[in-house]
Amino acid sequence: MSRMTQTGSSSVYGAARRQRPTVSVLKRLTTVFGLWAMRRRTRKHLSELDDFMLDDIGVTHAQAHKEASRPFWKG
């Protein structure tokens, strides 16, 4: 009887193990897409700053342009 219980419970645990990688992959994808969206948004905002604002944060126009022109998927 204990063998039957172990077999039954192991199939439940097996199903849980099979679902975890899918959930993990979805979480990672969500995190990556969120990071990409944030990079895109902040680089767009950086490109819209005037010289006074850039000077205020200690960034030159050339540095801002270089950073803003980078693709969002590059860190």
Automatic annotation (TrEMBL):
Q: Which InterPro entries does the UniProt entry name for this protein?
A: YjiS-like (IPR009506)
Report the domain of life of the source organism. Answer: Bacteria
| A matching Pfam family | YjiS-like
Q: Which residues form the YjiS-like domain?
A: 33-65
Q: What is this protein called?
A: YjiS-like domain-containing protein
